[in-house]
Batch of 3 targets.
Target 1
Amino acid sequence: MKAIKIQLWYGLLLLGILLGLITAYRVLIGTGFVLYAKTDILVWTMPIAAYVFFSLTSSGLAFVSSIPVVFGIKRYQPIEKRTAFLEIAVLFAAFTCLLLHLGSPQKVYYYLFSPNLASPLWWLGMLYGLYLIVLLLSFRKMHKAQVSKGLGVFTLIVAIATSTALGWLFGLPDARPVFSANFLAMYFPLTGFGSALAAVLLFSLAYHHFAKVPLSGGDRNLYEDLGKLFGFVMALTLVFFLWRTIVGGTSATAVEFGGFRHMLSSGWYHLALWVGLVIPILMITMPAVRNATWGKITAAALFLVGMFAGRLEMVLSGLVMPTGPKAEGQPPFVSYWPTIWEVLVFVSALAVLLFVYTLGERNLKLSEAPE
Amino acid sequence: MEMKPNQKEGTLKDFLNDYKMSRRSFMKRASVATGGAIALGTTVKPTLRALAQASETTGSGAGEWKAATCQGCTSWCSKQVYVVDGRAVKVRGNPNSKVNGEASCPRVHLALQQVYDPDRIKTPMKRTNPKKGRNEDPKFVPISWDEALGTIADKIMELRNNNETHKYMLMRGRYSYMRDVLYDRMTKIIGSPNNISHSAICAEAEKFGPYYTEGYWGYRQYDVQRARYILLWGADPLAANRQVSYYSAVWGDAVDSATIAIAEPRLSATAAKADEWLPLKPGTDGALAVAIAHVLLTEGLWYKEFVGDFIDGENRFVSGQYVDSELFEEKHTNGIVTWWNLELKDKTPEWAAKITDLPVEQIKRVAVGYGQAAPHAISWLGGGPCMQVRGGYASMAVHALNGIVGAVDNVGGTQQSNKEYTTKFPKPDDFLDEIAKAGKKHKKIDHRGRLEFPALNKKPGGGVVTNNAADGILNADPNEIKVAIGYMNNFAFSCPQPERWERALAKIPFLVHITTNASEFSWFADILLPDTHHMFEKWGYVKAIGNGYRHVTLMQPIIEPVGDYKIDETEIPWLIAEKLAEKGFSNLLDHYKTYIDPETGKAPTNEKEFALYALKYATQNLWDPAKYKGGDKFSGWNELIKAGVWNSDPYPYRKKWSNMKTKTKKFEFYSETLKDVLEKHAEKHNTTVDHVLEVCNYLARGEMVFVPHYEEAFIAGDEKEYPFIHVDYKSRLNREGRSANCTWYHDFKDLDPGDVPWQDVAKINPRDARPLGIKNGDKVKLTSPSGSLTCTASLWEGVRPGTIAKCYGQGHWAYGRVASRVFGKVPRGGSSNDLIPAQYDRLSGSTAFYATTRIKIEKA
Amino acid sequence: MPKYAMVIDLQRCVGCGACSIACRNENNVPDGIYWSNKITETAGTFPNVRFHYLPTLCNHCSDAPCVEGCPTKAMHKLDNGITMHDPDKCIGCRYCQYNCPYEVIYFNWQDPHKFWRNPKPVIEGGTSSPKEMAQTVNNGNGAPYSNPGRGKTLPENRPKGVVEKCTFCDHRIKVGEIPYCVEACPADARIFGDLDKPDSKVNRLLGKFKPYRLKERLGTEPNVYYIRSFNPAHYQRTKGGI
């Protein structure tokens, strides 16, 4: 019975990956990127939003795993291995999104042959490459023995670099004053950390549920601890989120923040605010809910849904208001709704994540605390 | 399909190019030969290579710039085409032309998409569905030229054998001056009176005013670079007709040196750069013109050197007061005082303000500014004020302003055309047999010259009433039409109320269409013949004026044709003549054989030689040094075709003052010329001039008939049911309604102010749209008393409230995959002509397009 | 090394768009992509209303954000000041589009000139299919009127998955010709030249008029300058009133 379920699960995930491959074929070799709801106004859409979502979650997971490794808080050790493996699985999802976003992914080797050190995107690419190597390295170490503090610190630094560089990437361009690199360099790591906490809660508690491993007392304390930390990070995120709303929505010039102001009335924004922040924060502030497994799982899931919507809202904020010659004949704001193919990008990325994770869960004893 | 070797870089490539070219040409010729020429029993060596001109290697690859002519609009600019390996790659202005020079308007580039339009018909075709109608698929199938020509000749012979050659009809569309071969000579020799041109759907009323004031039936040149005031009337020279390239080139200077005012209900491309925009109510141009004339006279701003003055120098033109004509001594004009007494004395700016809905101050300001600039003050007559029911008088009124300020034939004013020296083709008279002579005596199918259609092109019935030919055919009045040929025309699209043409064409038992694309007209044809594209594939010439010069610019075959095309005006009539000769009637061929090559003295032996010899014949005075008469001088034919254009001598100013081709030789404010011709027309019909005017739907009676004056516009539709006046205009990318199958047309459609790419829009003022709940981008249905169309709403401040502006050019339901939404079935956008009822300015015969109908707008 | 710049005289400009259509032609730019473009505005309300037209193209910024952001140096500066793109190195990330404040970069979302691959004629046997027409005339190499000259420094037709934009017609400059939009402008509203030559035509105009550039405050140092006004209309002197 169990074997059938597992096979069904693998089948489902492989189907998701297959859909991703079909998308890759149709977009890269067949019809082209017209399958996405992209135009020369909306040059970046859901695949990039999904990429940001996954990559920041991955960086955030590195922050979580550094708690025991770098900061020596030993009671976090039971989740160290799962977190470290999740970092890798989530990063694969991020790469999947990126692959399906790039127009000519087959040419990324020019990163090495023709590097532009002035480009945030070059740095980001290199940092993510480095990040993957470091993650694989530290996971291998972890699997066999304790990760050295040195490697842990290095992983943390690279994770900080990637998440902040992404803020640099979005916030630098003069063309999109709606973004501020200063703000994003804080907001991205913070929200990545929040997403990571949610993911750890979700995956760990799911493990206990599906593996039918009852929670020990230590586990209970740990997850309660994590829940509180999660609540704190969510609250902090809400504060930043509201300040971004206030600054962009009320006190700035309409021309430069027009896109964001327009997005304030969008479903994505409200999904991010209410479903992603307000409701889970309220849930976590209630001890009865916080302490219940279902409460933590629900709050974590809602936060991740909201985060995803928030990433999309943010990407769109910089693009929905056409300017200059591309505004000719366009309405003041262009509307966006993902196409089925863009949804498939996300679906296949998620399938990759879960597939890699499931392989790890079943083969690598992720519940083990390192020696 | 022949294959080419792959492109290689550098010198190897150049080498291969040469190799390729010869190989490709050989293959092409071989295929043409098997396809058509051999079947016709002729072996023809294309003259193309022999005529290759000085090659110029540029950064654009190895190619040559070859002289050509653009007929995308009737500017008729001289161009050069960059030809690479027999393939047209780009187009530019021909620097040898003194009219347009290097300047090229935007629409010329679309010619490339026209010549390589995949939807061009590449072979003759015949209809296999005998039923004809808008909803009947003709089920065209390819046939050989031999079969097509044979069938056509059979049908013509049938008419001849039955002594009913007057039932043959030739419909002309866009032409070159090779036209008479097909339009005139062939129709006459077959024996029919029915050669019907498109001219009256073009701008005959625009020539009416100038003719009945200064005796000039033609478009004027405007000396904008030396003008101090340019007052435009429904003319949009930066976007449409004529000399768009030339005016675009100099406008930036004109806006410096002249005040520019434009009367037009829509903010046109030219209005965008104007000092004054006078968005008058459609159909009131005549009122504004006479009010300006009133101010010019009361303010003493007429140009005394031209018009003359009161004997004692005291201005007696006082509002409301009659003037004794004895007191005024006119110089080069006729009837200024009569005009004042009959029409102008009460036509104050206050009066005009009520009619035109313009501010009084603006009318005065423009009138005074215009007068102060005399004589360098242009009153620029476009089609807008005059292609209206009763538009003939507005045409006169607007042009008469040039007379008051002495701008006629003057520096910084308006000019007629310069002299040119092309010659007419040999006369056909000796080749008309008895059948032809009898046939030719019948009345024309368009009813010109009848009481209700004076069409006064210089004489009663001298002009064409194009759009009325549909009614002639439908009612078999004066007779039925059994065999008809149309070329480069599309009356089922280009004429107002085209549904009449659909029925008329369906009624013609045998209809041939010579065309590049299977158009709405083709839909009713029995035979389609693939036409050459004028700019790249045809021998011909046209004449145009501008910048104080006249040029004669040549068309030549300069590329490798893709399909089995033949030249409409020369090759096809020759081939038909050959077939007729085969069937026992050789007069036409015998006539064509008199078009001898002036260089060699040889008579043509096939259609290709004929096309070339006919052109050399007509232009001999331009290129033959022995026959030199003036303008550019050439050493011979080869030099002329290499240059591509002949330029006249510069315009001689003021030579026509008191030497005009009017009755009085003066500029006529009181038109003795019109009086004469109208009286002749009345006499012919045993009636009075007043009765003629009544029948023709004009309001003037008595002496008023002979002076420029304002007549209330005759607009169809009840104001309550149809609250908006329809404003028709032309796109700057229109190539006379033939560019809608070009993707560039749609991708750049917003070059027309207020328009939208890939849409056909009805432009409505936001304050009119709001109460109707109509928003930008809404699908809307426009309905007039005579038809309706569906298009997209565009809310735009540049439209006069109470009017809806809609561009002509889209709404094709055939023509091609881009022009139509579903080829042969569903139009893309809507054609303005579906809204406009078939109405006429009957004095000129013109079809009315502007201020002709009211419409309503609803969400579709 | 020259430093190329363009001056656009808005008074000469008649808003006809010949520049943009000619550019399509010269550079084999697919439909929907505008290397040469415009910003228009209908200002005012009836009857006090005018239409204004500002031609736009790549500004070839001296401090180009697109070049700075490009990870693989596909977008790069040439010594003569041209902002050039190398589609071979382009990974299609579209960060340059995201970075360009002037919205002049376009992405090839699909294979170029798709129109010319359609195998269906509208009248079987009587007309060509677009594919057949393109094949017969030009071996199916883009549009039938495809300009081979463009192929000297860029692929004649750029493939799917890379961006493209105006190159100041670098292929023409290379052989001593001015950009095609300049040549094709019927009004001579575009003047091209070398800023490093003190007496070049562009420098003469820049010294005579108050030039301005788009979004100068960003510090991108565009090399496309505008002078004079699209509508230099006269008006009646007034002090206004209350």
Target 2
Amino acid sequence: MAATQEEIVSGLAEIVNEIAGIPVEDVELDKSFTDDLDVDSLSMVEVVVAAEERFDVKIPDDDVKNLKTVGDAAEYIAKNQVAK
Amino acid sequence: MAKIKPSKGAPYARIMGVGGYRPVRVVPNEVILETIDSSDEWIRSRSGIATRHWASEEETVSAMSVEAAGKAIADAGVSPQQIGGVIVATVSHFKQTPAVATEIADKIGAIKPAAFDVSAGCAGFGYALTLAKGMVVDGSAEYVLVIGVERLSDLTDLEDRATAFLFGDGAGAVVVGPAKEPMIGPTVWGSEGDKADTITQTVAWTEYRDGTVDRFPAITQEGQAVFRWAVFEMAKVAQQALDAAGISADDLDVFIPHQANMRIIDSMVKTLKLPEHVTVARDVETTGNTSAASIPLAMERLLATGQAKSGDTALVIGFGAGLVYAATVVTLP
């Protein structure tokens, strides 16, 4: 069963919390990783790799730059995750 | 078929001594900020680099190597005349031929040793160390001098805000000689040429010569792709090197990764789940990224400052342009 959008966002919140120390409640759909959540380009790579493992999805380097907001990432994951 | 005599070498090899040379001029981030729009805080948070050394005109690749080599030879307790091989890992010696190793060998007073350069980017030291070990075990040379040396300031685009602060200059050297037991483990190494564009010289010298471009060639890289590869793929290689040596992370005393960027080092340590007792080389803070020189320079500093001691078990891993990598477990000299 693929993760729901709600599960994806809460999973991303846990990941961002773990990597950048941002409170989980601050991780909302419209928040920008760099501007609002203080996740810089290198931390973003760590977030992406953690998300790949958690949601069984591949996020190539070329696509990472398009994931500006939490919503972008959640949508990308929902579209590309392998249904279990 | 004529019978060929087998070669007779030492049963095993070890690193016997280490030496380093850092150029006199220390360059703080303030100097870098004269040519890029950035801040000290930004540079430190992205790279952990506070200062680096830049070589003067006199501090050539050869001159820095001779200094480092002299210290390594003295530390090893051998004489220059005993050196049977000189291997220089570098990407920033700007005279294509002859190999700078021959000049260095002559200047240190070695007697007609085998001498050649190795181009394997930031993995150059590991590549050269592996060859040196092979030469000692094969009997082609009893003692081999391995040098990692760079003048990356010559290959830095000071107006590129993504890389201007990264690179530094320096030389690190070790002497590899015979051992009665294994003190350099199996090397896990390789290349991924499909990722050649990830870290590369911007253009070929000939393109610059022909006026295709007006900017002098410099090293450029795709930061995020390099970071992902360096942290997550290289952590696997590091683990393979431990497995190949038959030890676990708990057995390690020291971790000396290529000093590319503090963020890569920190993330690798986390990904590898290294125990807290393992001393981690963080020489990048004051030396910057010196490519092939970074591992021996970091090793020398850990030993000189007492953070590591002779006999410690260290995991060394180099990775960089190619992409290439080399990891092995060694006993520190």
Target 3
Amino acid sequence: MLVWTKPGKALTWLVFGLVFGILVIAPFAVVIAAAFAGSWNGVLPSGPTTAHLQEALSGDRLASLSVSLQTAFLGGLLAVVVGTWSAIAAHNASPARFADALHHLPIAVPSVVVGLGLLVAFSRQPFLLNGTKWIVVIAHLVLMVAFSYGAVAAALQRVDPSYAEVAASLGASPSRVLWQVRLPLLRPAIASAAGLSVALSMGEVGATIMVYPASWRTLPVSIFALTDRGQTFTAAAEAVVLLTATVLVVTLLDRLRGRPQT
Amino acid sequence: MPPVLLIGLLVIYPLVLVAVESVPAWGDVLGSAEFRDALVRTVQIAVCSTIGCLVVGTFLAVVISFVPFPGARVVASLVDTMLALPSFLVALAFTFIYGTAGILRTGGFLTTPWAVVLAEITFYTPFVMRPLLAAMSRLPRAQLDVAASLGAGPWRVLRQVVLPEARPALLAGGSLTLLLTLNEFGIVLFLGAKGTTTLPMLVHTKGIVMFDYPAACAIAVVQIVLSLGLYAVLRKALGGRRARLD
Amino acid sequence: MTVQLDDVTVHFGRTCALESCTLTVAAGETVALLGPSGSGKSTALKAVAGFVRPSSGRIRLDGQDVTELPPAKRGIGVVVQQYALFPHLRVEDNVAFGLRAARRPKGEVTRRVAEMLGLVGMTSYARRFPRELSGGQQQRVAIARALAIRPKVLLLDEPLAALDAQLRADLLIELQNLRREVPTLAIIYVTHDQSEALALADRIAVMRDARLIDLAPTTTLYQTPPSAFTASFLGNANLLPIKSSNNEVTVAGHVIPGVQPISGKELLCIRPHAVRLGAGGVPGRVTGVQWRGASYQLTCEVADVLVRVDLAADGAVPAVGADVQLVLPSEACSLVSR
């Protein structure tokens, strides 16, 4: 198509392999390798061990995983509900641009700023939430809501309105149309938004680090604390735990998507 | 519209309070060298990272699309997956690669802004690749074939046939990356270099480490103006199409 | 320039898209590659252009092996089905693309572009963008662009397939004129439409299942098709099973006078317009009548086989269910193998 000669192709692929391998793949491979390494003083890690992983999965640290999972499910899934609801409401109302901008605002500014805002707003009356887990959950909800809103709003544009019209013409009440026609049609979009929300929530660090109380420390915060203290191998092991948990949860949620309907 | 009101409360109300809270600190913060340095650093890092992402992302996307190899589809789906991973993983990996006891033992490199730039290029290149891959898959293969039959070499085909068609995608991916790199926090936090304080980092330091809320809020306001200004430009640049951050 | 495919085989992964194709097209000659979709005709054309690499066999231009040469070095004009005009370039820049790639002097580029646009009658559209043109106009520009580089070989891949019937007829005439304007051009014309092949080609190569099955001058192929597939694909011929004995050929027990049996050929091929109704023919029953404006087409059942018969619209037309006798004139009959 573009490069026709064999040596030309070979050279292109070689450069591609180098760039992609070194720049994109290597960092992730290195974290995984470090999680199982006793020490890393040369080019390659040495002393293979599962000690770091065991530590990452022991008592106190396991609590972080539990906190992360709870936050991701609470915050992420609340975001899906609110985002879907908003998108449907905004689709019917006229000032959709305002709702669009409102929902995208939190991901257009740094997450640290979102965290600071929540910290300032919920450390005082009338909403005193600082020091509870709910401020963390709210932070995740606010940050993830854009993805559900965006995905559902885009899906609503694509879905043929005649389905809902036909259902209504058959005598279905508006709520019946919503639950039995519109939401099922949106299911693939909602499911993929849920997967993305949970995955991003599991890895969220900027807003969380601004608002988390000592009793509600997520995995990324715990990984940062380890890195900051120089315990990088344990940090790598926790990162592997984080990645594994994320992949498992996202795979599970992907099942909900069901077969694409034609 | 209860959900919209809820989000309004959770998004607008805090930001308004941030703006109110920031008022007393404006003079101090804007005049400080610390703030000006961080502002300049933030923009420098974001611009360098974005240029890097555009160059690397374009190259990778062109090879996947037009010099395909067995497994190219797997690579493309890998790129999609990476969008959902946390950015601090890259910074964590860098401590093993470039750290004092790591693979390359480049010692001081890790604490320079260039380490942040390299980490951001690693993490954000997929954000450039995704719209590019989509745009390139829409370009009819026959156009490349015909261009070649008319005597054009690979460079000419790339410059005169592929890039003109990929320009909107480049613009979209580039401005999104610029926005996200301006806002990036995880990588800077984890690399923790003293010399590379960016605005989000400064918000964190002032707010959490020094409990100076007004100063943190003032910096946050500057950052909001910067990000939203760019976001508005981004939406304009995409010609009425929604700026898809998601 | 002579184009030669010498035992060319093309594989895409495990599927074989073209098998042992051998074909020579002389300077000034037009050869049509005719076949249904997936028969390998486009693959053969792409192999000549250099877009796909043969897994074995050689491609030669004037005897010179170009198999390893990238398309940019072959100097072959290519026109594809969807035209592939560069959407961001104006018509004149599309036509100039190849000349600029060859770094021709500016004056020459301008002159040649004007000449080419004149040739295809698109001079007044030079400043337009492709999206502002109709399908037929885009196709003309694509042809001008391919001819601008003065190719010795022109490859046309289903150039009319995306156009409606009237435009197709108009462009067919223009392509015939083009052949006269550039008399030394070797043209390979890929199509699934027999009427295009009949109108343009000196010779027709019939393709089926990745193979070239029949190759002959156009009139020969039409009048005496060598195979049942070619007979039905080219001209929609009726194929009737025959019994041969004692120097006689019978269809449904009825002797066809003047037709001699040939061993191994078990089908009688006759075009719908050559069949006549009259006394002493093969008995059959009318099962369908379609009016086609200038003619009627009858479908008649003859011993479990449906036979199509074209009748002039001015004569009497039997009704559905009527018993008729089909006369098969020997000069219009040929025998083919199954």
